[in-house]
Amino acid sequence: MSAELILYNGHFHTLDKHNPIASAVAIENGKFVAVGETEEVMRLRDSATKLVDLAGHTVIPGLNDSHMHLIRGGLNYNLELRWEGVPSLADALTMLKEQALRTPSPQWVRVVGGWTEFQFAEKRMPTLEEINTAAPDTPVFILHLYDRALLNRAALRAVGYTKDTPNPPGGEIQRDKHGNPTGMLVAKPNAMILYSTLAKGPTLPLEQQINSTRQFMRELNRLGVTSVIDAGGGFQNYPEDYQIVDQLAKESQLTVRIAYNLFTQRKGQELDDFQKWKDMVTPGQGDDYYRHNGAGEMLVFSAADFEDFLEPRPELAAGMEDELEKVVRHLVANRWPFRLHATYDESISRMLDVFEKVNRDIPFAGLHWMFDHAETISQRNIDRVSALGGGIAIQHRMAFQGEYFAERYGREAAKDTPPINRMLASGVPVGAGTDATRVASYNPWTSLYWLVSGRTVGGMTLYDQAGVLPRETALELWTAGSAWFSNEQGKKGRIKVGQLADLAALSSDFFSVDEDSIKSIESVLTVVGGKIVYGASTFASFGPPPLPVLPDWSPVNTVPGHWKPVLQKQTSLPHQCAGACGVHAHAHDVARRSSVPVSSNTGFWGALGCSCFAF
């Protein structure tokens, strides 16, 4: 036997307890055929084998996001400006202004997910006045978590909101004293007003949606992601909105494996949707790159408990149980795996009542089903999930909303939200993910930082030592743990002979760097099915070249991925203040030469960072 690809001189963390560390792997026909010492693996070399010297880099199994919205997010990726990791509101507003100048009419500037005001040095959100000043003419839509959206005056005109526009159920259009919309949309607590407004924006033409989806997959590859489970999503109709990913799959252009769930879109007609889909597709249909995964995360609209921690916990409708039971009976009878969005323990109790009732008549009998999120699930309900053979997919929503949760429910309650260690101790399958793209970041390293440090992206400590995870455990949730949620346990998630050859060589050693540095980790070489799909730095020549971004005004061309500080040294900085900024008092030369943090050219307290430089 010979190998198509051998990677050697690496430090492989295999997550295989029988062979935990290796220095080389051999890959043939998309699977690992040897994992061990370099001398042993090199025996599979022949004249056609591609060899890659990893130069001592740490290597992990490919990361698998057990809950994200890649298919919908890919259609819009090239349209969105990203504020993830941006250290100050001043920087964010500068980015907004510059993008508004580049964006042609009638397109919008959209900031959708991956940020929180707690990451900013100012510890506040932008004001509507600041947004209108930064972008007076180009429509701007900024989504803040699950609770509100900020629109400038141009965006209000574009969507047609006036003093005569009524508030939708569960949402509020805030108004001034004359009754005119201010630009602030509030979920109370239903986020539909936010998402329906976002859906009014212009879309990309077909060719650019293809490019956008490929750019998003490349960005995930850059971060070491090789698989995702797509949880459907609002305004994501099947099969219409799956045409792009279907085409990419047929053309063998997927660089991320996708298992997709189907999400009902019609309130009151949910059962009709699933009955129709039963005759169109079956769970598992597809291949290792693109396959159907069952139902959810929305099963019935009445069972959606909105996770806006600025608002009181919503009480589910009285008729929820009857509606949910009809759908779950249909799914279990037809052996469709399913997942259900559930934030609060009170909601989970009622949902489990339904599941247990159905199970008495139609046994689940090993059918994979799961709750998504489950931030406040109790031990009693964890045990009930275990008894029914279910799993729990957790996401790093608390990394972005932990401050709000602690303010409403108290710091003590926040220490065990979600109770991951208790889930694991109870033997429940747990997979990690992001729930990207509309609220939290798609960056897995932000999630891994949260899991092992117990801190939010704003730096607040949520969990004590009993609530955080060892690094290897956190990584396992992101790899082998997530495989259970697509019925692929034992097939991927470990660097092990016979498993799918998905891996990532990292820019830094996840197991030894300080916790804050985890957030900056990237992949330098990503392999999916034995194919190198991404290479950076000294490995760039091994991977495919980057695609040109379409359209050319896309924010992705200027702000790719997570914010990074300017590395080049600047020796002369112009004075641009219109008045005293209140931080430097115009003594910027003194600030530059100072040895204290104000000398930084990239941080908020530095010479470029104060709010007087926003415009």
Can you describe what's shown?
It contains 20 helices and 22 strands. The strands form four sheets. Strands 1, 2, 3, 4, 5, 20, 21 and 22 form an eight-stranded mixed beta sheet that branches. The protein is an alpha/beta fold. It starts with a strand and ends in a 22-residue tail after the last helix.
List the uncertain runs: 567-615
What is the overall shape? globular
Number of H/I helices = 20
The chain-level structural class is: alpha/beta
Beta-strand portion reads 15-25%
Instruction: Determine the mean pLDDT.
Output: 92
Q: Share of helix among residues?
A: 25-40%
Distance from N terminus to C terminus (CA atoms, Å) equals 63 Å
Taking Cα atoms only, what radius of gyration do you get, to the nearest Å?
24 Å
Count of individual beta strands: 22
Largest sheet: 8 strands, mixed
Please provide a brief summary of the model.
With 615 residues, the protein is an alpha/beta fold. The model is unreliable at 567-615 (pLDDT under 50).
